[in-house]
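Q: Hi! First time asking for a complex rather than a single chain. Here are the components, and I think there are two in total. Is that enough to go on?
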Amino acid sequence: MGIPRPPASRRRLAIAVPLALVGMLVLTSAASAGLLAPEAGGSKNADAIRTLYWLVFGLGVIIFVGVEGVLIYSLIKYRARKGAVAAQIHGNTQLEIGWTVGAAVILVFIAIFTFATLPTIRNPPNSDAAAASTAGITSGVAISDREKLPPNGKSLAINVNGQQYIWRYTYADGDNNPLNNVFTYEEMVVPVGVTVTLKIRAQDVAHSWWIPQLGGKFDAIPKHTNYTWFKIPADKAGTTFRGQCAELCGRNHANMIAAVKAVTPAEFDKWLSDEKAQIKSSDDAAAVQRKQVEAGQNP
Amino acid sequence: MAAADTTTVRRALRPAPQITAHGVEREPRGWTSWVTTTDHKKIGIMYLVTTFVFFVLGGVEALLMRLQLGQADNTLLSPQTYNALFTMHGTTMIFLFVVPVWAGFGNYLVPLMIGARDMAFPKLNALSYWFFLAGGLVFYASLFWSPPEMGWTAYTPLSTDAYSPSGGVDAWIFLVHLTGISSIIGAINFYATIANMRAPGMGWGRLPLFVWTILVYAILLILALPVIAGAVTLLLTDRHFGTHFYDTQGDPLLWQHLFWFFGHPEVYIMVLPGFGVISEVLPVFARKPIFGYKAIAAATVVIAFLGLLVWAHHMFATPSPTVVLIFFMISSFLIAIPTGVKIFNWLATLWRGTIEFRTPLLFGVSFISLFVVGGISGVILAVFPVDWQLTDTYFVVAHFHYVLVGGAVFTIFAGLYYWFPKITGRMLGEGLGKTSCALMWIGFTVTFLIQHSIGMDGMPRRVYEYPDVGHLELYNLISTIGSFILALGIGVTLLNVYISLRKGPKAGPDPWKGNTLEWFTESPPPVNNFDVVPRVRSVEPMKDIRREIERSTGRTEQLAQPAPESAMQPGG
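A: Yes, that's all I need. Here is the structure of the assembled complex.
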């Protein structure tokens, strides 16, 4: 391997850097499958997280290319050769202060961008006007500063309960009786265009709620309540978003899967009333049975 | 040492051991000499050998996991076995390899580098090793009954008796206690030794950077380990004596805070000494002084201080107030600054040097190239909304392996190749060394780079199986293939050690033209280390001594002082 003269190596660098950048861009376009960035597309908060990620990732790529570039350049340029003498430099205060401040400036920039993006991620918007009268939407009042509700206070509130090894979803109906609430296991059915707010709890060990395309993880920890939200765009009706428990919860942690099925508001209304009717009819049947048992008859 | 500097050096060169070595006893041999030793070098070797045995065990556990994940919906391992494997792997690598391997290097090298004849408390030093070994044996004994399955983080309530009734968790608690006592007494010993036993003239500003990092490592151990000792004691009483610290009568989140208050400083306990190795290796092979000695030493201290203030960035997904999330995001950002400073200083050390591509240097620059990735992914994870997507996925697994394998293991190997000649008196093979480094770099990158994507594709960590959706099966297969290349690379170094112990070329006292005092004595050093300790006048005392000798004799050979001939023996 010959020793590249400075102009040649500079020329090579001038070719290599743009090539690397173009390569990155090509890969970027193929990144929707979660190769280079977290998944998104099911809700605004997930999209905003992804935007934030791209910014930090982009800065990271620049630093990566810079550091690896200087490293490789030094290793080639300054390798031991006959007659070469190492410069006996002990330091350079100005340079050192410079890169310390430079690193700090980049981090301040990331922090500012994070704060600017945070409201989109944390604060749920109102439901779409077209879906505002969907069944099941209730008015709520935030009871914790971590609980965020849409500006008009109306959302489809669902209680998420983690247990070894299944998720249970209870659709709060606004009355004080939790026994007549619609509930499902594993698959949550939600209307598109409606802001869904989740209260996440656990009843045995710690779990973590995560549907990648609908936003980040929120741990379900016994004795605590965690909050998040999502709002699936109207054109995603018919899509099922998949995820799974993300906190080790025992031997079958890998099998504790979760799904969110997005349906149109009309379909949701029908589904909810069907479920309610089923609960009602089985309650009624149980009441008849109970009376029979109390009367000493065989059921 | 009242004599003037030049006299000291000349006297040290005279081939007359009887001047100061007449009181030295014959070096004891045989296995009893190892069991009963209080010599810091023998204890150091025992630490190094034991930790590498655990390293191999932890590696085999990792390979078994990668085999299971090589295919979607694989049935090679049961969920129980898989959970036990990742618990054993994490615990082994952290408590039984990376933390104690630095105790091994520190034990062997700190007294030599500061010109001392042993550690401050030699018996305590031996006790520290035996506690460590006992911790490892207790933990691995659980293999014969019921190994723990709750992960090395042992989150409550999963690790309480209601959900993990088996004794595996108790074996793990026992391990944390025993290795914790070992590390605390070892750390006190390091602190006392470095504070009190430095060679004449070696002020804090002339302390070798590796010794600086061992000093800070010791302080962090003293601060962090009592917290985890208390935390696991509460877990023990919850499990067996009816207390309720971590169940819903207490608070399951309490464990996470206590654990990570220890757990994050632990990360710096594992990587800071590695930084120290790099700060020693780069100047020697670039033939250039370290760039910004003071900045690097200061950055070590600042990292350690900030490292105590970032623990809750492991808990961004827990129910925590926004202000807490913001505090820990900012503190985690801050720690990137001194870490970046170190990397820039290392690059500047290479800049305009005359770099000799020997194996220690190759491992050193491999470390820089990989650690940068871990640092960048660390900043990505510190942005808490982004962390909500990435935490507890394979992205995090990739991140901390870049930090702990790229950061710690590669520096351990750099240190191994650099100091093996001093410890055993024989050189490691350069060809095998370079092959090993190349295989490890390639294997590591193939294994862990793709794991970022596995995480972003939606795969959580600690799952024994996954469905074949997206590209998960392909990505995982790539990662599995990489892990075997990495293992092969490590195997080549073990082979290299095996061959060199028998047939390696004799190293002589100073094969690399080192900068620090350990190269002043024979390889391996005699029991008393130094007959005469030279006065230290800079960060690079050996350079001064070499210059002195060139000036007075015109020769550069035969630097070392005489040593007992029995010193020429292969180390364990």
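A: The mean pLDDT of chain B is 92. Let me know if you'd like any chain examined more closely.
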